[in-house]
UniProtKB/TrEMBL annotation:
This is F-box domain-containing protein. It comes from the Eukaryota. Transmembrane segments: none annotated. InterPro entries: F-box_dom, LRR_dom_sf. Residues 92-146 form the F-box domain. SUPFAM superfamilies: RNI-like (SSF52047). Pfam families: F-box-like.
Amino acid sequence: MLFDDVVIESFTEAIPLPPSSEVTALLTHNLPPSDDIRSAVLAEKQQCEHFIFLVNSSGHRLDVKHQSSISVARTETEKLLVDLRSILHPIRSVPDDVLLDIFALIVDSTEASSVSTDTDLWACSRVCQLWRTLILVTPSLWSDVRLDFDDDVDLKYHISRAERVLIERLERSGTQLLDVFVRGPRARPDTNVVLRRLLTSAARWRSLTVNAGPEVYEMFEKCPEGSLTELRTLSITDSVYMDGDFDEEDRYTGVVLEAFRSTPKLRRLFLSPLPLLSLSLYPDAVYNNIQEISINLFDQLPDVSRLLPAMRALKSLDVLCDEGWDGDDDVVRLPLLSRITLRGHNDTRHIPDTWTKLYLPNVTSLQLAYEGIILHPIFPLLDKQNTRITDFACYIDSFADTGYPDFERDLIVMLQSLPNITNLRLSSRRTTPILLEEIRSRTRFLPALTDITLLWKIPSYQVPDDDIHLLIDTLHTRARSATCATVKRIVFELDIALYIGPTPYAFMWEELQNSGLEVIECWEPLSLFCPFGSISHIIDRY
């Protein structure tokens, strides 16, 4: 009995005392502790660790009654230990400029749900006082509103909580203009409460991107009349409908969206699969304001042919080539256009036809996108050299295994008619050794090339070493040639190692970098549109 009393007394004496008020005060902010307080915290931390060690090593020797009380004390001690370690965390001593750089890196890469508190932005607000202050006083950090009804768990199962979080986000955004993204829902009326809450902020929408069915567009018809006066970008699509059976009934026949009629600041319009006639815009917005438009050709070629030449401010055009042109169709003249994107989904035969039917004397940027099941991409036919185009991008997102060697050869044939390209961007699910070999061995092929983007959307371990070596040799050969420009910048995937070990290619790569080659590692898909901006302007004033 005496032994048990001694053991119990040793446990009782080892239980840490509650921390002082100076220590607990540190738990209310993220400022670093003074030297005296740090010493007290370290001593308290050692007491906690000693008590937990004692319980772990000898707690089994106590009777059941005392084991229960000691277990409670251990739980409280473990919680206190977490708090003490947070006070001693190095984040409290990191210089402000370093903290801001880290903050910009984390927040800038965040595309998270707007109705969840389990996101990077919310987590950052708990890291340190500087980050918390920055987040709370910067409305633009809350100006992206993302509602994904298809994948977001909170929008599927916790509608009430999602609505509350959305309300808080809208309040934190202050008077900031909003960039809104909505995907889904499809025939889910219980989500209308969240959409109705979103509509209360319509007067502040700067951009609206919607990928949904007709039932969602009916909700947007409830926007207060004349409230969308700040809208600059409108993107409307229905990917489920586009990927469905073309023989099914057209759900958009006769649909007219009156809500977007009064949008005097609208500059960018992306519309598919809805026909042009579904948007009842004021003529002034259509003919004098819109600078960038994305449309499809299916069942509306006459409307497209009439509308596009009348759009006097149009600079950029994106066309889903889903219908063929008749031989006697007039050429559509677009002398003011500077950028053209032609897309093919499953069937790419109409891309060359569309290129032939467009008169584009001042286009400097040509972008081609092949999506779906593409056995062999078909490229536009250029009957003569085009010396105005300096920017070219080709995006191939297809799982088809055939036709890739021929694809590269056909691409080379087309590129031979574009001698002044300075920026070449290519994204595919295969490497492109034939194209790289052409660029390496014929320095007069694409002689003005200075920027290359190669996004091979395959795991890094599947990229042959020979292709990596060929890429390095290509850049090195061009840098030493007098008949072509030197490539100054290359963009490639983050997880592709350009060399391993002391090989000749490693020395080439080091020489290229020492000579000024800019290397950008990218894990994002090739984007055919310009991003909206970055977070750098937020950090500048701190």
